[in-house]
Design goal:
Two copies of one chain form a homodimer. With about 400 residues, chain A is of the alpha/beta class. Helix content of chain A is about 40%, strand content about 20%. Chain A has three domains: about 80 residues, Winged helix-like DNA-binding domain superfamily/Winged helix DNA-binding domain (Arc Repressor Mutant, subunit A), CATH 1.10.10; about 130 residues, ATPase, nucleotide binding domain (Nucleotidyltransferase, domain 5); about 170 residues, ATPase, nucleotide binding domain (Nucleotidyltransferase, domain 5, 2-Layer Sandwich). The first copy, chain A, is built from 13 helices and 15 strands. In chain A, a hairpin with a 2-residue loop joins strand 12 and strand 13. The first copy, chain A, starts with a helix and ends in a 9-residue tail after the last helix. At the A-B interface, helix 1 and helix 10 of A face helix 1 and helix 10 of B. Chains A, B: InterPro entries: ATPase_NBD, ROK, ROK_cs, WH-like_DNA-bd_sf, WH_DNA-bd_sf. Chains A, B: Belongs to the ROK (NagC/XylR) family.
C-alpha cells in the first residue's frame, strides 16, 4: 500500500471512529448534530453512517427534533449488540466478566485465589474460561485484560509484581493474543481503571484525569486531555514505586520507601498480622478480606482500627500530593480495595492535600471516590476492549 | 469566520509549520524530499514554498543531487535572518541574550543580582533592556521568557518561588505581553530547557525527553513524543516539590521533604554556611558562586567538599529514580548550576538509579550532562521563542 493510500485509510478510520465515539458519549443524535460537532461535511457523515447502518453497528431511531425545528432522523450506536470480556489480574485475584458496550455487567466469574506455584495452571484456566464464554455468546467481539504495572508495552510482560514475582514470567501477549477468535488488548491495571472512569463517567472526560488504584499494589493511570500517559516504554505513572521516604522501608523493586510499602492492601495486611488484636484471625484472610475487616471495625468505632486506617490514609494523601506535583490533574479518583474505607479515607486524603500543596496548585484538584457500580479494574479491563472497538472499528466489522 | 474555514486555515498553518520544522531540523532539502518526509503532495509543497520564498523566510541554494540522480534545487531556512531575545528569570539572576534561530548567541547581558525588595525596578529594567535590543536590531522577531515553576499557564503567574516569594507578585503576561512590538512567549524554566535540548540536540528529539534543571530551584520539563507535558493548568512535572521524605525538612510550598530542600543551589549554600570551613567566605557569595566554589574544591580532592557533593548527588539520584518511575523517559539531561559538578555527579546519579530502579524500567534510561554551549535556561528562553516561530509562522510574517 502506498503511503498516500495508507494515510487516506487512516483518515477514513479516524472519521469512522470519531462518529462512533460521538454517538457513544452523546446518545441518539442526528447526522447534522454529528457533522457540526466533529467538523465533517454532511456528505461525509451520510457516506460513513450509511456503511455503519448497513453493518448494523448503528441504527435509525425515528424522527427527532432537529436544528431550526426541522425534523431529522436519530442515529444510535447499537451498544447492546456487542459484548466484551474483561479479565482482571490482580496478584492473588483473577476476575473474568462479560459486559455490553455501556459496561452493563452480564456475568462475573471469580477464579480461585491464585497460588504463586500454579500460575501456568491459572493461565490455562483463564484461557478455558474465556473460550467457553465466547463459545456461549456470539456477540463477544473483544477481550480486554488489566494487568499489574510496571507493564512493558512492547514486551507484553510486567517488569515486577511486588510480593508475587511469579507473574513476571507470564508474557501476556504470547499467552493470550492468539488464544481466542477475537482480538485481545492488554493494559496496565490503573490505566484500565482510568479508561473506565473516562468512558463511563462523563464529568471526568474533561481535562486531566488521574485514577489512583489502591489495591494489592498502588497504581496510577493518567488520561491527559484524552491521551493516556505512557512514557517511553509504558512504565510511566508508577506512583506505587515513587519513594516517599528515601531512608524508609525497602521494596522488591530495588527502591527504598516506595509508597506501596506503606498503604497497599498487602502492606495493611502485614501491619494487621503484626497486631493481630485489631482483626482477630487476619492471618488466614486474603489481603482484601483483611482490609475489609479493618475498615468495618474502624467504621464501628474501634480506636486501634481507626488509627491504622487514618495512618494508611495519610500515606495515600502523601501519594496524592506527589500525583498533584507530578501530573497536575483536574481530578483524582480513588478506587479499588482500599477506597472501600470510604468517607473517612477521602477526608484524610483531602486534609493532607490541603496541608501539603500550594493552594493555587493543589486546591483546584477534585478528589473523589470511584462511583463505578462494579469493581473498577474489571470494568477497566472491559473499558480497554471498548476503547479499542471505538478507536479501531475496522478491526471488528467490515467497513467497505 | 466559519468553523470550516478556521479548520482550513489551521491546516495550511500546520502544513507551513511542518515544512519550516523539517527544514530547521534537516537543513538544505529539495521539494521532493520535503514532500516525501511530511506526506504532502508535490503540488502542495510547491505552493507553500513559493510563498515562503517570496517572503524570504526560505531561500533557494542552487542545484543539489536529487532522488534517482535527477538534479533538483535545494531549499534552506533563513536561520540567520531572524533573531530572538531570550530572558531567563532565576531567583536572584536575570540574563538577557540575543540568539539567531540556530541558537548562536549574539549578545548576553547579566542584570545585577536581583534584590527581593526591588523586583518592580528589575521588571522595568528588563523592559528597558529588551526594548533597546529590539530598537538596535530589526531582525528580532520574538521574545521568549523562562520563569521558575510552578507556573500557572492561564494566569501568567508563578504560584511559588521558594526562597524568593517576591516574584510571586509578578504577572509575566501582564508585565510583558504588550511591552514590545514583537510577540512574547513565557514558559516554565525547565520546560524551556527541555525545548532547547529538543531543538538543538537532534539525538534527544526521539522518544520521551526529561530536562532535569538543577539550579536555584529543582525543576523538570518533559517532552513526550514531541509534546510538552503540562497537566491541567501547567503545574505538572514539579519534581522539586515531590517529597523524598514525608517526615523530612519543611518547604515553603507547604509540603515536607521536597527534593529541592536537599539539593538545590540554595540548599547547598545553606549547608555550606553551616560548615563555613568547606568554602571560606561562602556567606558573601551568591548561591551559584558558592556551588561553583564547592565543586572546584571537590575536584581538587578536598574530602569534606567531595562528601557534600556526593551527598547532594545522591539526592539528585533519588529525584532521577522518581522521574523514571513517574515519567519513564528515554533520556534524562542534567543541566544548570549544579550540573557543573560534572562527571562525579553523573556517576553518583547513575549509581543511585542502578541501585533503586527495576532493571527493565530504569536501566534503559540514558542519563547525560547538558552539552549546550551556553547556559541551558537562557538558551531555553530563546528556544521558547524559536519553537513558536516554527509552529505559528503566520504570527511572524505575511503568509498570503
Amino acid at each position: 500500500m502506498s503511503s498516500y493510500s495508507a494515510q487516506q485509510s487512516s483518515i477514513s478510520e479516524n472519521n469512522r471512529s470519531r462518529i462512533l465515539q460521538y454517538l457513544y458519549h452523546n446518545g441518539i443524535s442526528s447526522r447534522a448534530q454529528i457533522a457540526k460537532a466533529i467538523e465533517l461535511t454532511p456528505a461525509a457523515i451520510t457516506k460513513i453512517t450509511a456503511k455503519l447502518l448497513f453493518r448494523d453497528v448503528i441504527e435509525e431511531t425515528g424522527d427527532m427534533e432537529g436544528d431550526k425545528n426541522r425534523r431529522s432522523i436519530g442515529l444510535n450506536l447499537n451498544c447492546a449488540k456487542y459484548h466484551v470480556v474483561g479479565v482482571k489480574f490482580a496478584r492473588s485475584l483473577v476476575q473474568i466478566a462479560v459486559f455490553d458496550l455501556k459496561c452493563n455487567r452480564i456475568s462475573l466469574t471469580d477464579l480461585p485465589t491464585v497460588d504463586e506455584e500454579h500460575i501456568p495452571e491459572t493461565v490455562e484456566q483463564i484461557r478455558a474460561t474465556v473460550r467457553q464464554l465466547i463459545a456461549d455468546d456470539s456477540s463477544i467481539v473483544a477481550v480486554g485484560m488489566a494487568v499489574p504495572g510496571p507493564y512493558l508495552v512492547e514486551e507484553g510482560r510486567t517488569a515486577l509484581v511486588s510480593s508475587m514475582q511469579g507473574w513476571r514470567q507470564v508474557n501476556f501477549i504470547k499467552e493470550f493474543s492468539e488464544a481466542f477468535n477475537v482480538p485481545v488488548f492488554v493494559e496496565q491495571d490503573a490505566r484500565a481503571g482510568a479508561l473506565a472512569q473516562f468512558l463511563f463517567n462523563p464529568e471526568l472526560s474533561e481535562g486531566s484525569l488521574a485514577y489512583y488504584l489502591l489495591g494489592e499494589g498502588i497504581g496510577l493511570g493518567i488520561i491527559d486531555n484524552g491521551s493516556i500517559y505512557y512514557g517511553a516504554h509504558g512504565t510511566a505513572t508508577e506512583i506505587g514505586h515513587i519513594s516517599v521516604d528515601v531512608n524508609g522501608k525497602p521494596c522488591d523493586c530495588g527502591n527504598i520507601g516506595c509508597l506501596e510499602r506503606y498503604c497497599s492492601a498487602n502492606a495493611i495486611h502485614e501491619r494487621l498480622n503484626e497486631q493481630p488484636s485489631i482483626v482477630p484471625g487476619c492471618e488466614a484472610m486474603t489481603h482484601a478480606q483483611a482490609c475489609t475487616a479493618l475498615f468495618a471495625k474502624a467504621a464501628a468505632g474501634d480506636k486501634a482500627a481507626m488509627d491504622l486506617t487514618s495512618e494508611v490514609a495519610r500515606y495515600i494523601g502523601y501519594g496524592a500530593v506527589n500525583i498533584i506535583n507530578a501530573f497536575n490533574p483536574t481530578h483524582i479518583v480513588l478506587g479499588d480495595i482500599i477506597s472501600q474505607a470510604g468517607q473517612p479515607l477521602l477526608d484524610e486524603v483531602k486534609k493532607v492535600v490541603r496541608e501539603r500543596t500550594i493552594p493555587e496548585v493543589g486546591h483546584d484538584t477534585k478528589i473523589t471516590l470511584s462511583n463505578l457500580p462494579t469493581d473498577a479494574t474489571v470494568s477497566g479491563a472491559a473499558a480497554v476492549a471498548i476503547t479499542n472497538f471505538l478507536e479501531h472499528p475496522s478491526m471488528f466489522f467490515d467497513v467497505a
